[in-house]
Design goal:
With about 350 residues, the chain is of the alpha+beta class. Helix content is about 40%, strand content about 15%. A hairpin with a 4-residue loop joins β2 and β3. It starts with 7 loop residues before the first helix and ends in an 11-residue tail after the last helix.
Amino acid sequence: MGEVDLPAIVREVFPDPSPGAIAAALEDFCRRTLGAGIARTEFFAASVGTVHGLALRDGRRVVVKAHGPRTSLAFLEAMQAVQRRLADAGFPAPMPLAGPVRLGRGVAVAETLLDAGRVADARDPPVRRAMAAGLARLVALARPLAGLPGLGESIMAIAPGRLWPAPHDARFDFDATAAGAEWIDRIARTARAARDRPAGDLVVGHTDWRAEHVRFADGRLCAVYDWDSVAVDREPVIVGAAAHAFTANWAAGEGARLPTCAEALAFVGDYEEARGRAFTAAEARVARAALVYAMAYTARCEHSDALTDFGRRAPAARAAGRAAADSARGFLAAHAAALLAAGVRAGPSPS
C-alpha cells in the first residue's frame, strides 16, 4: 500500500506514517506495555482505528488497536472493563492486556488475539439465531456495568442538537454531501424522535454487531471483535440497531450485504426468544425506529461515497446511477414508512 493510499486514520495516529516508523512505534509500545518486542506482524486493518495483529517474542499473540486523537480515555477504560467482565464469564471477548496508552497522536489498547472459527453467513437462520442469542447473552452479562460513565463518551455519541454523530470514518462528509440526502435526513428525524422514547432498560450492548465481527466454530459463537463499538442505550435501541446490518461483511467484496426487512425483523424476534420474553408494544416500536435510524445513517454513508467516489474526490453535484434495492437507501425507500407506521414519505427515488 502506497502512502497516498493510506486510510485517513493512519495519518491521524502516526506522525510519520511510513512502514518503518509505524513498526518502530509499535515495537516501543509493546516493550513498554507488554514487556516483549515484536517477532512478526500477522495482519493489519484500518477503519475507526488501526488494528495490528502481532506475534511477540515471548510467544504471545496479541492485537494492538490504535484510536484517533478524539477518542476518550474514559471510554476506552470502560470498554476494557466490559471486555474483562465478559471474558471472565466465558463470553468470547478478547481479554484486555494493556491500555489505554498514548501512541503517536492517538491512544492504543492491547488484547489477546482470538482467531479461532470462521465468518458465517448470517442469512442462514441458525446463524442468525446464534448471533441474536449471543447479543442477548452479552447484554445479560454486562447489565451491572450500564452505569459506567465512560461508556457515554463513544466517538459515535450524538452531540446535542445534531441529527447524526460525527461519521465513524473520515472519508464520510455528511455536511458536504447534504444535497440530495434531504429525504434520508427527513426519515432519520422521524425515526430519532420515535427511537428516543423511554422504553426498555438501559443496558450495555454492541452497536456494530455484524457477521464480519464474529466468528463461529461448530455452530457456536467463538470470537467477537470491534469492542470500541460497545455502548450503553435502551435495550430495544441496541437490538434494532444491530438488526439493521447483522448480515453485513464489508470485507467480503461485492454482493448483498444488508438484511432484507424480513430478516431484520426476524433477528429482533430471535433476540426476544433468546432473552426469554417479548418486547412490549412500546419497546417494539422503539426497536423498529432504531432499525430505521441506523439504516438511515448507513444510507448517508452510501450517499457520501456515491458523491465522493469513496472519499477520493470533492463531492459531485449528483451521484450517477440509482441505488440498488438491497442498499440502505433502497431499504429506506421501500420500508421506512411501514416500519415507523407514521406515514413518512420515502422521498424521491434514491439515486
